[in-house]
Amino acid sequence: MFIEPEYDVIVVGAGPSGTSTAITAARLGLNVLVLEKQQQVGMFKRCAEGFAWGLIESLELKLPRKCWTQEIDGSYIYAPNMKEFLIDMGKTSGYVLERRVFDKWLAEEAVKAGARLIADVNVYDVIKDKGFIKGVKANFLGEDYEVKSKVVVAADGVESLVGRKAGFPLINNPVLMDSGFQYEMAGIELKDPHKLEFYLGTKVAPRGYLWVFPKGENKANVGIGIIGNSPETAKKYLDDFITKHDRFSRGSVLEVNAGAIPVGGLMKNMVMNGLILVGDAAHQVYPIHGGGIGEAITAGNMAGKVIWHCIEKGDWSEERLGDYNKLWWDKRGNALAKSEKVRETIEKMSDEQLNMLAASITKDDLMKIVDGNVAILTKTLLKFGAKNLQKKIFG
Ligand SMILES: Cc1cc2nc3c(=O)[nH]c(=O)nc-3n(C[C@H](O)[C@H](O)[C@H](O)COP(=O)(O)OP(=O)(O)OC[C@H]3O[C@@H](n4cnc5c(N)ncnc54)[C@H](O)[C@@H]3O)c2cc1C
């Protein structure tokens, strides 16, 4: 009843990458179907909900007030020895979202743009024909459907069943994947409800960091991301931290969230005949901090434009859809690859070296390093005498 037999574009997944692709493609006049397996768009959050100011602008949209719970104007970063490093932006630089509301709002924007979106549809396979992906097989409320399209968009997150069914390999190297675990907590004490808190160190969060992202005066996402092959679980590290800190240990747990974060494994090729991968499905996450919402929106917007162009020209082969590879690598991929290098450098540092880095670095240099500036990191390492480390990493 709801689903037509054929569309220009089928987007699998109504996360930010899928709905952004749908918004752009539908605005350009394509007939777009978005299929989401959850009963409600945005129902299961796998996210700390941090979102930098302006990331929605590529879609020419303004973030409505209902989508965020807290304005953020800076961060406290803690070295392994708990030395505090304050970055005060002096003005709103980001938000902690309410993903449930945000994802649903983006979904409604896709519908406003002309896309059709159906929740509670599980896509379980792709249709292959003569070397092309030509649609999907899906189940909607117990009924099986085969829906055809010119282009299928795999926006189905880090596990990407659609990508795998089409023939892309799943990341199987745990070093390229962070394991994330989080409690949304209430009744806790925050240092400052307008500042994010980050805790570093091999004993606190091996390779990654532990975060406190405020969602009000006494409420926050308290979570952790650690290297995927850690012998101890992310939950264990988070529980240890919470137990040691009274301001959290007396709090309540409103939600438990867990998920994998692809902090590496950027893909040179993200397309095949009739198929395009976006967002977490294409590992488009910022490797240093694991932020993927903004990347998903940027990539979705690019994918929507490229798909429209290909359909206009009547050619959605891998070669033509490959324009998306070029565009994304030019605008985002190279920056993310640099940031991956920085992450690889930082993860080789001992707690002592991290303490030295925290003691000697300026706010400006730290911001540049987070932006993927390897040269500044090298300079800083040399400054505090970590010559061996610098040599080991850069030769
Ligand atoms: C613990 C944790 C904390 C994070 N914190 C942050 C943060 O603070 N800031 C930030 O920017 N990023 C964060 N991220 C990353 C961010 O959540 C993702 O990068 C982002 O959600 C990617 O968007 P997406 O649309 O590609 O995928 P998703 O948001 O995962 O959306 C994929 C959608 O596809 C649907 N789907 C999957 N399979 C099927 C199927 N077979 N049929 C139909 N639908 C399907 C899913 O239900 C889902 O709705 C975090 C991730 C984790 C795990």
Structure, briefly:
The protein has 395 residues and is an alpha/beta fold. It has twelve helices and 18 strands. Helix content is 34%, strand content 29%.
What does this 3D model show about the protein?
- This protein has 395 residues and is α/β, with parallel strands linked by helices.
- The protein folds into 3 domains: 6-49 and 99-170 and 264-321, FAD/NAD(P)-binding domain, CATH 3.50.50; 72-93 and 173-262, 2-Layer Sandwich (D-Amino Acid Oxidase, Chain A, domain 2); 341-394, no CATH class.
- 34% of the residues lie in helices and 29% in strands.
- The chain has helices spanning 16-27, 99-113, 161-166, 234-244, 246-249, 293-313, 318-321, 323-347, 351-360, 363-370, 374-383, 387-394, and strands spanning 6-12, 32-36, 50-52, 68-72, 74-78, 84-88, 94-97, 116-119, 121-129, 132-140, 143-154, 177-186, 195-199, 209-214, 219-227, 252-262, 271-272, 275-277.
- Strands 1, 2, 8, 9, 10, 11, 17 and 18 form an 8-stranded mixed beta sheet that branches.
- Helix 1 (16-27) packs parallel to helix 6.
- The model has no long low-confidence stretch (mean pLDDT 93).
- The structure holds flavin-adenine dinucleotide (FAD).
- The site of flavin-adenine dinucleotide has 40 residues, from helix 1, strand 2, strand 3, strand 9 and strand 12.
- Residues 12-18, 35-38, 46-51, 121-123, 155-157, 161, 180, 182, 223, 257, 259, 261, 279-281, 285, 290-294, 296 line the site of flavin-adenine dinucleotide.
